[in-house]
Write a structure and sequence with these properties.
Layout (H helix, E strand, L loop, with lengths): L2 E9 L15 E10 L2 E2 L2 E10 L8 E13 L3 E7 L9 E9 L8 E2 L4 E3 L14 E2 L16 E2 L16 E2 L4 E3 L4 E3 L24 E2 L9 E4 L2 E5 L14 E5 L2 E4 L5 H12 L27 H14 L42 E2 L3 H9 L59 E7 L19 E4 L16 E3 L8 E2 L3 E2 L4
Helix pairs in contact: 1-2
Length: about 500
């Protein structure tokens, strides 16, 4: 069998500037495409992977081999989980791959050529805890006070800090602020004492800080801050309203799954007993096909009010208000108001709990891409019904979808993207905050223009073609629209 790998994608979630510290994991998902005699392979194959330090030479073998038997290959596509241990210090790495048919008395592995290079970028972006020493190069952005514990020895404290002979500064209850790595908060100096309740100084020389626990809100994933390419970077000619633009987005948390009907109802019943109204006189009420399937028939206004209710129910500050004053008297709880961008509480100081909101369009696309760049979909450039819940019939060369679904699928049915998010393509399209504009204009945390008629929705639906499921594809609708094709998910601002 003559086989070759014609493209390889390592799904490595890149960390740039992150608002919290994470453990570096060792396992990663690897996706490739296998050709047999010039034709996309399908069937069951044994694959063996060896990690190498160069693209040739027997002396460059570093780790492995790792064998994946009976690997399913569909239309040439396969996905495996690999773990070579702590062998990714930032240097270049290559995979040597061998293949054979999966059968009794199978022949020996055939080594494919050339070796495939994989990125040395850190990839453990969903680790829930971290232990051991974390270097200062891994700490940036904002770390909530509740996530820090341990003690800084005098040698690790910034210059100019007075310890009065104490054994060190306790980190419990201390916040590391963005912009200068400044420590503030109540300090414990062991047996010593100070007259002030805080110290301020440069943290540039801090090393060996031990973070014993870093928490991500339940049911959410961290989307790291940084620059990414927003828009049609692959050059599909039918997308004319998404010219590729490099945009910086601050870190945030996003719901791993679309809001389900059971989650919607749990907040809805609380909300209607606490001053919230949702009007369904001229349209069907929100519903879903099963408790763990996403809610639909939700218009934009109700999605925004629901986010506010979720925030209040959780004891967090609501994000959306009906005027610029943003007080408890004008929290957006009723009616259908076209909110302006300055009616929104986009950020508070790190010691307050800012609540849930819809993602901006830029936040949604950064999250959807899962750390990949220049790809049509969250996993790569090709699509079929094993990857996403959408309908056949687009006629595009990258579209291998077969069949027409009868409706939505359950949470977690399809594989997640590189950030651990499910259904960022297909199942249901998702409301975003933004009103629609024909092009992107702001390069740092864009939140869109002032209110216009239409609001953006992204991601494609079960009854859409694969073309709608592309990460760069943009759509908009009147915010009163409530269809069986659009749902939503929430985000939290950093340091919540």
């Amino acid at each position: 069998m003559k086989s070759k790998i014609i493209f390889i994608l390592a799904l490595l979630g890149a960390i740039s500037l992150i608002p919290t510290a994470f453990a570096q994991g060792t396992a990663f998902t690897y996706q490739g495409r296998l050709n047999a005699n010039g034709v996309a392979a399908s069937g069951s194959y044994d694959l063996v992977f060896t990690l190498c330090t160069s693209n040739s030479g027997s002396g460059s073998l570093l780790a492995g081999p790792v064998t994946n038997t009976a690997t399913g290959v569909t239309n040439g596509l396969f996905t495996v989980m690999l773990d070579f241990g702590a062998n990714f210090p930032g240097a270049a790495r290559w995979l040597e791959i061998g293949v054979r048919t999966n059968q009794v008395n199978a022949v020996s592995f055939s080594t494919l050529s050339p070796r495939q290079q994989i990125t040395p970028t850190p990839y453990a972006v969903t680790a829930a805890t971290v232990s051991g020493a974390v270097s200062v190069s891994q700490l940036s952005g904002s770390i909530p006070a509740t996530n820090l514990s341990g003690t800084l020895t005098p040698a690790q404290l910034p210059a100019g800090v007075i310890t009065n002979g104490g054994s060190g500064a306790g980190l419990t209850g201390v916040a590391l602020l963005a912009g200068g790595n400044t420590f503030t908060g109540n300090q414990n100096f062991g047996s010593g004492s100070v007259s002030a309740l805080k110290f301020v100084g440069s943290g540039s020389n801090l090393t060996g800080v031990v973070a014993t626990s870093v928490k991500i809100p339940s049911g959410m994933a961290l989307i790291p801050e940084g620059v990414f390419t927003l828009g049609n970077s692959i050059g599909d000619l039918d997308i004319t309203n998404a010219s590729p633009t490099n945009v910086y987005v601050s870190g945030f948390y996003m719901d791993v799954n679309l809001v389900s009907i059971s989650q919607w109802l749990s907040v809805y019943y609380w909300a209607t007993n606490h001053g919230y109204t949702f009007n369904y006189e001229n349209r069907p009420p929100p519903t879903g096909n099963a408790p763990n399937q996403p809610v639909y028939h939700v218009n934009w206004y109700d999605a925004v009010k629901w986010c506010n209710a979720r925030s209040e129910q959780a004891g967090l500050y609501p994000v959306y208000y009906t005027s610029e004053t943003q007080t408890t008297n004008n929290i957006y709880r009723t009616g259908e108001t076209d909110l302006n961008t300055n009616f929104v509480y986009w950020a508070r100081s790190v010691d307050t709990g800012l609540g849930y909101r819809l993602p901006t369009e830029a936040e949604w696309e950064k999250a959807a891409r899962g750390g990949l760049s220049s790809q049509r979909f969250p996993w790569g450039n090709w699509i079929n019904e094993n990857l996403v819940n959408c309908s056949e019939g687009s006629g595009q060369s990258y579209d291998g979808v077969s069949g027409i679904p009868s409706g939505t699928s359950a949470a977690g049915y399809y594989a997640p993207n590189g950030y651990g998010l499910y259904d960022m393509a297909g199942n249901l399209s998702e409301w975003c905050w933004n009103t629609y504009a024909s092009k992107y204009s702001v390069l740092v945390n864009p939140i869109g223009p002032s209110p216009r008629l239409d609001r953006v929705f992204r991601g494609g639906s079960w009854n859409n073609f694969a073309t709608h499921c592309r990460s760069a594809n943009r759509n908009s609708a009147n915010p009163v629209s409530a269809t069986a094709s659009i749902g939503f998910r929430s985000v939290l601002a950093p340091a919540q």
